[in-house]
Amino acid sequence: MSASALGPAPPNRPVYLDNQATTRCDPRVLAAMLPWFSEDYGNPHSIEHAMGRRAEAAVDAARAEVAALLGVGTNEVVFTSGATEANNIAIKGAARHAARYLAPGEATPRRRIVTVATEHKCVLQSVADLAEEGFEPVVLPVGADGLLDPDALRAALAEPTLLVSVMAANNETGVLQDIPALAAIAKQGGALFHTDLAQAAGKIPLALDAWRVDLASVSGHKMYGPKGVGALYVRRRPRVRIAPLFSGGGQERGLRSGTLPAPLIVGFGEAARLAATEMAEETLRVAALRARLLDRLRAALPDLVVNGSMTARLAGNLNLTFPAAAARAIMEGAPELCVSTGSACSSAEVEPSYVLRAMGVGDAAAARSLRLSVGRFTSAAEIDYAAAALAAAHDRAAAGLHTAAAPA
């Protein structure tokens, strides 16, 4: 494909299709945050004076917006630095509390903790770490579509289980698990149910209380809010008890001590409000752009493979295996695009995606796979440019031409 076939040149900034890694902070979110850095900068815990009380009220208002987005009570939202911290508190905190206190009617503490092979690394590592404390990690497989078989969960729950942790939307494939059904199975087995909502919150409707979820983790920067803030949902009725990870002043119900970052929390609350208001319309627009991107790529590369279910999937995600060129070569050939591979880097070594491996994708195919994620600020012109640029970079790399052609 010639450079002239790429269509309109991209804007001066790169074309961003990595919205599952992080999202642009919505300008409306930024505007809501700014006064809390320089004007109303009081500590929200300094309620003895007016500026502290204003900050406290702003935090409370943001907490209500996050709770409404999740479908839970305001007093069930605990602010954290992000989903990684929330996942650690939920999993390790529930396990450590259970190790100290027997549940009613239990002769011995439950030790089994069940999760899924395609979870985020912070969940998998948290579960693995607990093996050193006497817990039994169980990691369930998924099918080629990326979905957990409910019968596999039922079988795992044949042994007394403390906690089940299943992410709602996968961070690489965008595959959506049936959280209400899986939570119901966990309840039938007497286990707590935790879900990582980092990729799902703000993208799909949530009703955690009705779904009988016990614990859930959210991150602000995945939903057009600021980095450095997130939340943990902790059910109050029936009450879920967890041990805090560290000691401090006892803020956030004693579960997460430390001074709350009021500006970030205000931004998080505004991001939650915008998501709740605009979700339905935005989902349709993003899904249409994703379909446009896939159609154009398939027209140029008919042997392109989509990894994971296309029916149970986030509206903006595509995880694609390209026919004949390595993902990194494609990225090098289209440096004006911001996309990502399914590979995780550990020091100097690059390994194929463990998520794709768990779905039965071979290492060679995984090395040819890219994650593309459309978002709120993606335009149709950018989609058209990206499709042409990816196809051209693929063809050059497949032909052994390693230099990128300059867009017209």
Sum up the structure in keywords:
14% strand, Aspartate Aminotransferase, domain 2, single chain, alpha/beta, 7-stranded mixed beta sheet, globular, disordered C terminus, Aspartate Aminotransferase, domain 1, 408 residues
Low-pLDDT sequence parts: 343-349, 404-408
Number of domains: 2
CATH superfamily of the largest domain, please? Answer: Type I PLP-dependent aspartate aminotransferase-like (Major domain)
Q: Which whole number gives the mean pLDDT?
A: 93
- The CA-CA distance between the termini, in Å, is 12 Å
Radius of gyration: 22 Å
Class inferred from helices and paired strands: alpha/beta
- Which class of the largest domain in CATH terms? Alpha Beta
- The strand line-up of the biggest sheet is 2-8-7-6-5-3-4
| Name of the CATH architecture of the largest domain | 3-Layer(aba) Sandwich
Strand residues, percent: 5-15%
Question: How many individual β-strands?
Answer: 15
**Shape call:** globular
| H/I helix tally | 13
State the CATH topology of the largest domain. Answer: Aspartate Aminotransferase, domain 2
Helix content: 25-40%
